[in-house]
Design goal:
heterodimer; A: mainly alpha; Leucine-rich Repeat Variant; elongated; B: alpha+beta; 2 domains; eleven-stranded antiparallel sheet; two-stranded antiparallel ribbon; 7 helices; 14 strands; CENPI protein (chain A); centromere (chain A)
């Protein structure tokens, strides 16, 4: 079917060639082949049902090619039929590229009545692309002046709407002067301005045109369409003209959508195809400044604008005459592919602050790595943060705006995966003054991107002010701080891994010195979190939520050696470990099990690595870590498995209790009363297990769970999602060789 | 202390200047001053008639002159000072109409170079910006500089601590002529607001300072504190008011006067650079 369709097209084009014999035909030939190619690409093959109609569209087109002058629509049924065909095809599928030339020629030649011309123009809905040559011949019809004002205007509005569907624009741009001439027509002027706005390139902006526009401006006064075009001219040639756009204007071009937009969108949706995105107006400068503000307030991220410092460029060109690089205006940078195409001739915007909200420019900044660029951003951001900080500056009531600004910076940091040094300095300066509530989530998020550079001062700059707020603030704030610390740790570790990758070839020596710094900084951070966590668990009565954030932090800590290649492991303090171990929540216990399992895996791997290589002994884990781990492990196994935590736990803050004391509790079998069956977090599982295993037994005798049933109970726990527990038990409890390992003592009762 | 260039002195002395700090100017060049002036005057016109485009290079209501003053600096590393002057032409008189200066602003640096050497090619350090004229022009000129040279302006307030330093330093400055009294203005935190003006004969203040300062050419925070506290206790003996509980707002001496809102007046040409150095220092510490 595809073949059948395309075989028709050349036929149609042959007609076209016979008809037109203007001197423009030379390049029209080229245009034809272009449109042929595109139609093959764009026609969907599943339009079988429309095949019959396709035939009649062809007939209709060839009818319009030869339509005699002054045929009356009312009297001539052939015209009626063909017009109806064109309209229905246009609305259903859009018109194929070759249809436009024929129909535009009829509509603009003035052969037929305006009602017919209007209907033809209204039905010019593109199915795929519009060949450039059809537009060029239309412009020549406009110049001849055969059609009425109304049709001229309608054509221009159509042209604006479908501008992005035109396959090439070189030849149309060559007609810039013709369009410019039409500016004199008062009615057409707004639409011509819009066409020119879409068409203008740097080389089109010439002093005489500027003077002409200024003339028009003095005649017509402030007109939004003239303002738009003039500001575009200013963009290309800031040394020739300047304009300040008023903030009030809502739209620079009225009715820019035209009546065709809905039909085009409908067809696009039908085809589910990504047609070119229409060019956005880039008059962003005026849009956000409507609110009255201090002139030196910088908080609104400036719109990207081309560097107006043109004088500099001039001298550069004088020095190197061979360089004919034209800068690509940043305002026009809209897509990633544009960025790639123009990356050699892009210039950073006049105000570096604008890169913050422009991901494309952030990409560009990231690959440029220019010191001057970073410094410009550094000063702008640093000054703005200090000037606008709502808790440092008195009489500053613009909290919402400041919040938004911090959010913008945070987003850019996430995008770059790197903190800004100016933001870091701002945090260090302002955290001691912070009340902990103003812009809370933004500040804490920004904290997570602080770099490791000044780790020696981190205690006084970051941890002390944070701790002060931490102890006196709500549970929610505590959780937020813990979350922020977790992200800070993760960001440091990730950047360390990247650093390792990029420097794996370089000298070991420099690596070691930075590594020891990192190890110190990370250890400091982990110890800080350990301290505040311990305090928080004592201060707060409802610790479930808090425990979630604390354990999330330690889930990273326990895996630092294997996951992030950092030779450091730090066990949680007893103030965290025991509350988690004796938690009422199975979730917390389960996560603690998982964490202990990962500690074990990391410690074992480190030991093996050390024994194997005997390398880098300075980064051996201290025996203290192993000792702590073993102490915790004994407590845990005693608590979950062997029921002897009260006797065996040797940790000074642990569960050890005198037998006398235990006897006083009047619990009968206190020696067997703390294990996975009786643990407060797991007892609920034990009960429901009993219910299922012994549906008739109503005594709920938990001691029934032993021997084989102990194993079943374990399986039952695992099946209930306690995967961490499973990993812990399977790795840390040796159930087979009873004799060799004391941990497995009462496995098989 | 050498005398400043009389031309600069004439432009700077006995006017009231509002202080700003400015972050380094990116890609500013002394050799394009007339070009900048053209762009700036068109920008002013465009800002005044928002929405109407202005051709650059034509004669406009406000004339802009940018001039460089290489002599106004502390050391070789300092950039030449830049003076921006806006003058308007009175429309009434015809051809030989007089131009009236409506606004002027100085960018300057006296021992204010703080950038690493690697970037000095791209950046121009003129951290102190002094303005005399209508705020509306300050805002237009400032916005233009911000847009064109990607820099940031911030009002430069002077803290009471720095004001007391100025009081001590300026008291220590020797003058040939007889000097007028030193005046300190304090604000009492009460409603309605109450200001206290405290004047001391220059010779008395000078004598007091001489007994306090140990090493000539060097001043410590301790000495400044002793100086101020002596003045406070003297005041307390007479009026039973603790000035240490009020806020120092303004210091006026024969050398210069400074208000905590960041408004200064230079009065002696021979100490001009010294005062500018002090202010440059404050500006740099606000930027850094």
């Amino acid at each position: 079917m595809q073949r059948r369709q395309s075989s028709k097209i050349p036929k149609l084009h042959l007609h076209a060639h016979h008809k037109h014999q203007t001197d423009l035909s030379a390049w029209r030939q080229r245009g034809t082949t272009d449109s042929e190619k595109t139609i093959q690409n764009h026609q969907s093959p599943d339009n079988q049902e429309n095949d019959s109609k396709q035939g009649s569209l062809e007939e209709a087109l060839s009818y319009f090619q030869r339509v005699p002058e002054h045929v009356s629509l009312k009297k001539d049924s052939v015209l009626q039929k063909n017009l109806a065909t064109v309209e229905s095809v246009a609305l259903q599928r859009g018109l194929p590229p070759e249809g436009f030339e024929v129909l535009l020629n009829v509509a603009l030649s003035g052969k037929l009545a305006d009602t017919v011309n209007t209907r033809i123009l209204m039905s010019l809905i593109p199915a795929s692309v519009i060949p450039e040559n059809s537009i060029v011949s239309s412009v020549s019809w406009l110049c001849v002046g055969k059609c009425s004002d109304k049709i001229q205007l309608l054509f221009l509005r159509w042209l604006i709407t479908v501008f992005d569907f035109i396959d090439h624009k070189e030849q149309i741009n060559a007609l810039y002067g013709f369009f410019f001439y039409f500016l004199q027509d008062e009615k057409l002027c707004p639409y011509v301005c819009h066409v020119l706005y879409l068409l203008t390139r740097k080389e089109n902006v010439l002093p005489f045109r500027i003077r002409k526009l200024l003339d028009l401006q003095s005649k017509m006064g402030m007109q939004p369409h003239l303002q738009a075009l003039l500001s575009l001219y200013k963009l290309f040639h800031p040394e020739l003209v300047t304009i300040t756009l008023p903030g009030k204007v809502k739209a620079y071009f009225k009715n820019s959508e035209g009546p065709w937009k809905a039909a085009i969108n409908a067809i696009r949706q039908k085809k589910q195809e990504n047609s070119p995105v229409p060019l956005q107006l880039f008059l962003g400068t005026a849009q956000r400044q409507w609110r009255k503000r201090k002139w030196n307030s910088q908080m609104v991220v400036p719109a990207s604008s081309t560097n107006e410092n043109y004088l500099e460029d001039k001298t550069k060109q004088c020095v190197a005459l061979s360089t004919t690089t034209e800068y690509f205006p940043v305002e026009q940078l809209q897509s990633f592919s544009q960025l790639l195409q123009n990356i050699h001739c892009l210039e950073f915007p006049a105000q570096m602050g604008s890169v913050l909200t422009n991901p494309l420019l952030l990409h560009y900044m990231n690959c440029k790595k220019d010191e001057a660029v970073n410094l410009r951003l550094h000063y702008w951001m640093g000054q703005t943060l200090e000037e606008e900080c709502t808790w440092c500056v008195v009489d500053n009531s613009r909290q919402e705006e400041f919040k938004e600004f911090l959010e913008t910076i945070y987003k850019a940091e996430c995008f770059l995966q790197e903190g800004f040094s100016s933001c870091e300095e701002f945090l260090y300066k302002s955290l001691p003054l912070w009340d902990g509530s103003c812009c809370q989530s933004q500040v804490l998020k920004l904290v997570s991107w602080i770099s490791i550079n000044r780790f020696s001062e981190m205690k006084s700059l970051l941890y002390d002010p944070l701790a002060q707020l931490f102890f006196t603030s709500s549970l929610y704030f505590k959780c937020s701080v813990l979350e922020s610390m977790r992200e800070l740790l993760q960001n440091w570790l990730i950047s360390h891994v990247i650093h390792l990758d990029s420097e794996s070839d370089s000298q070991d020596h420099s690596l070691n010195s930075t590594l020891s710094g990192l190890v110190d900084a990370v250890a400091q951070l982990i110890n800080f979190v350990g301290q505040i966590s311990t305090a928080a668990l004592r201060l707060e009565s409802d610790i479930t939520l808090l425990m979630h954030f604390i354990l999330s932090f330690y889930e990273i800590v326990c895996d630092m050696y294997l996951q992030y290649n950092l030779p450091l492991l730090i066990m949680p303090p007893a103030g965290v470990f025991y509350p988690a171990l004796l938690s009422m929540e199975s979730v917390s216990l389960n996560r603690l099990c998982y964490i202990m399992y990962r500690y074990r895996t990391n410690l074992v791997a480190a030991k093996e690595n050390y024994l194997e290589k005997k390398k880098a002994p300075q980064f051996r884990f201290s025996s203290k870590t192993y000792k702590e781990y073993n102490q915790y492990l004994i407590a845990m196994v005693g608590c979950l498995w062997t029921s002897n935590a009260f006797e065996k736990d040797s940790h000074p803050q642990g569960l050890h209790m005198d037998e006398e004391l235990l006897k006083k509790t009047a619990v009968k079998e206190y020696k067997r009363s703390l294990n996975i069956v009786h643990h407060p977090a797991l007892m609920i599982y034990a009960l429901s297990f009993l219910q299922q295993a012994f549906p008739d037994d109503t005594t709920f005798n938990l001691s029934l769970i032993k021997g084989k049933k102990w194993d079943w109970y374990l399986e039952y726990l695992y099946a209930n999602g306690l995967k961490g527990l499973k990993l812990f038990i399977e790795s840390s409890i040796n159930r087979i060789s009873q004799a060799s390992d004391h941990k497995a003592e009462n496995v098989q009762e | 202390q050498q005398d400043t260039d009389p031309q600069i002195a004439a432009l700077l002395l006995r006017r009231q200047w509002t202080l700003y700090s400015v972050s380094p100017l990116y890609r500013f060049s002394d050799s394009h001053l007339s070009g900048y002036a053209r762009l700036l005057s068109a920008f002013i016109a465009a800002e005044k008639q928002k929405g109407l485009a202005v051709e650059i290079g034509v004669e406009l209501d406000i004339k802009v002159v940018l001039s460089s003053f290489p002599d106004l600096k502390g050391c070789d590393q300092d950039q030449a000072a830049l003076l921006v002057q806006l003058s308007s032409k009175s429309k009434s008189s015809t051809k030989n109409s007089e131009e009236k200066l409506v606004w002027s602003g100085w960018f300057c640096s006296v021992f204010g170079d703080y950038l690493p050497e690697s970037v000095t090619e791209d950046f121009t350090c003129l951290p102190l910006f002094l303005v005399n004229g209508a705020e509306s022009y300050t805002s237009i000129v400032g916005s233009w500089f911000q847009k064109t040279f990607d820099c940031c302006f911030r009002r430069l307030a002077i803290s009471p601590l720095n004001l007391s330093w100025m009081a001590a330093i300026w008291t220590g400055c020797k003058l040939d002529k007889t000097s007028s009294a030193m005046e300190l203005i304090f604000s009492v935190p009460c409603l309605p607001p109450l200001d206290i003006s405290y004047s001391i004969h220059a010779e008395d203040a000078n004598a007091l300072w001489d007994t306090i300062q140990k090493t000539p050419g060097e001043i410590t925070q301790e000495e400044v504190d002793v100086f101020m506290n002596s003045l406070y206790s003297h005041f307390h003996r007479h009026f039973r008011i603790h000035l240490s509980a009020t806020k120092l707002m303004k210091v006026s001496t024969t050398i210069a006067s400074a208000h905590c809102d960041g408004i200064v007046k230079f009065l002696q040409s021979q100490y001009l650079t010294q005062v500018l150095m002090l202010l440059t220092d404050l500006a740099v510490s606000q930027i850094e």
